Amino acid sequence: MSLLIDTDAFCKLGAANLLADAVDALGLTMPQCARLPALPRMLRKGGLRKRFGNSACDALQPLADSLPSLPRPDDAWLEKLTRVSDIDPGEAQMYAVAATGSMLVLSGDKRALRALAGVQGLSGALAGRVVVLEAILIVLCESLGVDVVRGRIQLAALNDIMLCVCFSPGNPDPHTALLAYYGELVSEVGSLVLWSPLGGDRT
What we know:
alpha/beta, 14 helices, 57% helix
């Protein structure tokens, strides 16, 4: 596998019917992806159904079931990550796996991202391999067109302030807004070097 997808990114891009496009934009295929172990259960019951609705979760269930669960994480990295209060157990497992491999991580969890820079050695281990929602949506706006992305993103935008602002009916230029949000996040995550959506700067 080459891409680890966190639950937030899976649900928001999946609900928008943009997940396969996002994976393709990264030069990968769905069989090369893995998800968090708890995702299928979370789609069947709990908070995700309240956030995205029963229909969206039911539609995402087969896709979640088809993806392999991420492999066993490295114990040393997992121990470091589980000590950080802003990184939940699932995210800790995912980043512990990514830190010892060459996989990309597709993440929508900004709180965890801000906390990663404080974990000794992790920024270097993950440099250029963390793909945030803003970055992949910048690329999708360029490849699919802003109107297509705007049309698909509405359900996900109900659960994300950034998406709501960027793709609001009154905003004629979501691409520029996404670039601004991405630049702000780059500053917030400190030493953690994010995957860049900017042409030749992509890793």
